[in-house]
Design goal:
The chain contains six helices and 17 strands. It is of the alpha+beta class.
Length: 261
Amino acid sequence: MDALTASGAGLLLPAVDRTRPDLAAELLERLAVHRFLVIRGGLPDLPGTVELLSALGPINAASTRKDGAVMVEEHDDDEVFRSSAALPLHTDGVLTGFDVRYVGIWCSSFDGVVGGRTFVSDADRALLAAPAEHVEILRAQGIEVLAVDASGYYRSEYSDRWTRFPAFRARPGAGPSLAIGLPHGPGEPESWRIRIPDVDAALSDAILQSLRLALLDEAFTYFHEWRPGDLLLMDNDSVMHGREAFEARSRRLANIQVLAS
């Protein structure tokens, strides 16, 4: 089967039988090779999808989630995360304090939508195309992030002040991987802000812009056109994801997080 990016990431799987006892093991094997999967068919409801992903590891059941998921749909408030606004590329967990290993996004409805695609970057490979001197500064300095959304999904202390984090994380037996969220574009409503600490603002902006250009290069990026029942399953250590701004009659996507054991 063909990869979904020119860099070799991503795999489209036909309808799955979620009752298969070996399905979870197969998904983990494919994720280790392809970094993200698109499963089209065989997952008609959210409870069954959560049950499937629970075989990959513990499901994030935080109080801000219901039945193992957050339903992401437009709301009539100032929250950007659950809105029709764009979300830049990011890895899940940085501002929530959870160690997220895999991310599943399941489509409940997608009707009359203009825009609204979810995009995935093969971040580990894309990083090799970024300026080496910028990557080294990022490794040495880390990042500072300020949570702008104050809906309860992000830890409250991250809304009060800029908080410093390592820009990379590593698990036993694996190399370091990016763990950041890129800045929002000019004029976009913000869910978070990010900067590189202990460097001047111009250099911080230049580093984040060069990183954005590398991560969104067409060789490393996949844009998903949603259909109801689709599951986009991602290795949160290897890829980053974001969404386009949109207008829609109905766009309901459930975010399901599998935590590291």
